[in-house]
Amino acid sequence: MIRFEWYFSEWWHKSESIQAEQLARLKKGILRQAPETYLKFLEWGNGGEGFSGKLYLTLWKGEDLEEFNQLYHVREYFPNAFAIGDDGPNLILLGSDDGVYVAPYGDMRDASVVKLTEDFESFVLRVKSIEPGGVTPSKDIARDIILCYYVKNSGSVLKQALQLSRALESTVGISSREILASLKRSGEFRIERLDPCKAERVLQAASRIGISIEVLKPE
Length: 219
Fold this sequence. Notes:
This protein is α+β, with helices and mostly antiparallel strands. It has helices at about 5, 20-25, 35-45, 65-70, 75, 120-125, 155-170, 175-185, 195-210, and strands at about 15, 50, 55-60, 80-85, 90-95, 100-105, 115, 130, 135, 145-150, 190-195, 215.
């Protein structure tokens, strides 16, 4: 599952999580074909707003979606999409293909629509790289995540180093020898300057083999 707090961090002012009853009702209506990641986002924060550094972004509350989509006649122009927010001059649309699009408020012709990302998950991963007219290259994604593994009281340091290397070799390519040296020297091993996507893969790999890694610094 995406850790939304890594991407919508101190710059984002999120709303309270949507009530389960409200979400269940919306899933029978406007959200009946919405992707799971977007539904999880509503459960996490139910919309919000903030300045990403490139533009001021607003994602609407779930309970406001039907009203705002009717107000802006979204389905008249885009029968296979619904609006989930705006960036000031543009509506942000979620398509039936799961793609995220923008369309100018005053010119909602098909020719004016720009596809931002292939799906809502990619939109979340790139949210701070979104700017008017598109998305900046992925190299602009912040690399601020710090993960740390601490030596446990029980079990040998060598065994722990070998276990940790299993979780890291396929994601960040760190050898067990390097991990072992750090664990013996300081009792911990840090992986710094990770982008959120790679940090999530490390945590998932560690979880699969029962390794506990702490997140020291979210984005």
